């Protein structure tokens, strides 16, 4: 059987990671709020940890949001440096701070 020639890998897909992680984080917090009033019933049936699992998911999602935003900003700075342009975000993008007297 003849081997097929290898093709180069396609470039990675661009996605809005901040929106995806943010949506998941909101869902974890909504699940926590929905399950919290049923804590007694859940505990009686052996599922008392469910609300706390949802809260943990929401808190870990906040860490994920921080990471995704930092990654997105680093990618933007890298692309701007490659293009030889100034960064598009951050304090330097706004110019010098206005003097307020």
Describe the structure using short key phrases.
101 residues; mainly alpha; single chain
Structure explained in plain terms:
The protein has 101 residues and is mainly alpha-helical. Helices cover 58% and strands 0% of the residues. It contains 3 helices and no strands. It has helices spanning 17-35, 39-44, 50-83. Helix 1 packs antiparallel against helix 3 (50-83). The N and C termini lie far apart (80 Å). The model has no long low-confidence stretch (mean pLDDT 87).
Name the poorly predicted regions.
Answer: none
Q: How would you sum up the global shape?
A: elongated
Q: What fraction strand?
A: under 5%
Assembly type = single chain
Note the main sheet.
none
Classify the secondary structure makeup into a structural class: mainly alpha
* Percent of residues in helices: 55-70%
H/E element order: HHH
Radius of gyration: 23 Å
Q: How much is the average pLDDT?
A: 87
Q: What's the total count of β strands? A: 0
Number of helices: 3
**In angstroms, what separates the terminal alpha carbons?**
80 Å
Summarize the structure.
By secondary structure, the protein is an all-alpha fold.
SSE diagram, text form:
Blueprint lengths: L16 H19 L3 H6 L5 H34 L18
Helix pairs in contact: 1-3
């Amino acid at each position: 059987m003849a081997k097929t020639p290898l093709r180069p890998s396609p470039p990675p897909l661009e996605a809005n990671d901040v929106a995806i992680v943010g949506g998941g984080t909101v869902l974890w917090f909504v699940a926590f709020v929905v399950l919290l009033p049923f804590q007694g019933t859940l505990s009686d049936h052996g599922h008392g940890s469910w609300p706390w699992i949802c809260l943990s998911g929401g808190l870990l999602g906040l860490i994920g949001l921080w990471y995704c935003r930092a990654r997105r900003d680093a990618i933007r700075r890298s692309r701007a440096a490659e293009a030889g342009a100034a960064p598009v975000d951050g304090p330097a993008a706004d110019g010098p701070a206005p003097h307020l007297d």
